[in-house]
């Protein structure tokens, strides 16, 4: 049984073997790009929306609402990143039902690349929001003793993201292979339905975790107000009454 598409070389380019993971990743990226161009080519206020544009608006609005529930800040700067992650992983996993297509997310190299993009994006969002000094200060919160633990926590997030997505997609393929050997006429339909469901759930979990990490890095630490400021505010409120 083949556990990963990395083992299949589709063609050789300039002496470099291009495996099935790379080819299927290009296919998913091309499908998302072409679909986005076709749906948004007449994106004007005077053109009534068709069903594809309505579907895209429902998806984008749903992702934006999920981000707003997590992050109290502006969701637009996170929407592009987390939304792209969700659409790529979801479409990759949904194409599991296509005969002969192996989702690129069942390769550890793909999930590691996605996790690495989150690891790079988190400090970039944090520095953009708080500046370099403000972001680096978050590593010594609540005290400088926590510096090594916060650094380890940062890297463990990426490792857990990659292993979780790869493990769930790969284990689903293994279980499907075992059940197909037991009852080849019944389990394909059941496993296809479960594969679609778990694929969407895994895409949702990955995008939500990425959003949580970015929101945590961009959250501004509020300093406690001095006692005399609190007394002054209390006096003003009593005078207003």
UniProtKB/TrEMBL annotation:
InterPro entries: ATP_syn_F0_a_bact/chloroplast, ATP_synth_F0_asu, ATP_synth_F0_asu_AS, F0_ATP_A_sf. Pfam families: ATP-synt_A. It is found in: Cell membrane; Membrane. One of its GO terms (molecular function) is proton-transporting ATP synthase activity, rotational mechanism. Residues 222-241 are annotated as: Disordered. Residues 224-241 have a biased composition (Basic and acidic residues). It is a multi-pass membrane protein. The chain crosses the membrane at residues 78-101, 107-127, 165-187, 193-215. It comes from the Bacteria. The keyword Cell division does not apply. GO terms for cellular component: plasma membrane; proton-transporting ATP synthase complex. Keywords: ATP synthesis, Cell membrane, CF(0), Hydrogen ion transport, Ion transport, Membrane, Transmembrane, Transmembrane helix, Transport. GO terms for biological process: proton motive force-driven plasma membrane ATP synthesis. Key component of the proton channel; it plays a direct role in the translocation of protons across the membrane. PANTHER family: ATP SYNTHASE SUBUNIT A, CHLOROPLASTIC. Belongs to the ATPase A chain family. This is ATP synthase subunit a. It comes from Halomonas aestuarii.
């Amino acid at each position: 049984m083949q556990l990963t598409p990395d083992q299949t070389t589709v063609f050789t380019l300039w002496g470099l073997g291009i495996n099935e993971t790379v080819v299927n990743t290009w296919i998913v990226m091309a499908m998302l790009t072409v679909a986005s161009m076709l749906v948004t080519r007449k994106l004007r206020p005077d053109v009534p929306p068709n069903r594809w544009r309505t579907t895209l608006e429902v998806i984008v609005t749903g992702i934006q609402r999920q981000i707003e529930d997590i992050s109290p800040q502006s969701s637009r700067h996170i929407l592009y990143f987390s939304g792209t992650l969700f659409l790529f992983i979801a479409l990759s996993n949904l194409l599991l039902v296509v005969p002969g297509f192996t989702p690129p997310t069942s390769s550890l190299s793909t999930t590691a690349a996605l996790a690495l993009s989150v690891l790079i994006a988190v400090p970039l969002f944090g520095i953009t929001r708080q500046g370099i000094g403000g972001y680096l200060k978050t590593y010594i919160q609540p005290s400088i003793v926590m510096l090594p633990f916060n650094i380890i926590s940062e890297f463990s997030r990426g490792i857990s993201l990659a292993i979780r997505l790869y493990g769930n997609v790969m284990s689903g393929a293994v279980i499907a292979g075992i059940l197909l050997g037991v009852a080849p006429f019944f389990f394909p339909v059941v496993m296809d339905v479960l594969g679609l469901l778990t694929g969407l759930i895994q895409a949702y979990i990955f995008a939500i975790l990425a959003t949580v990490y970015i929101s945590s890095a961009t959250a501004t630490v509020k300093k406690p107000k001095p006692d005399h400021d609190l007394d002054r505010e209390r006096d003003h409120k009593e005078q207003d009454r």
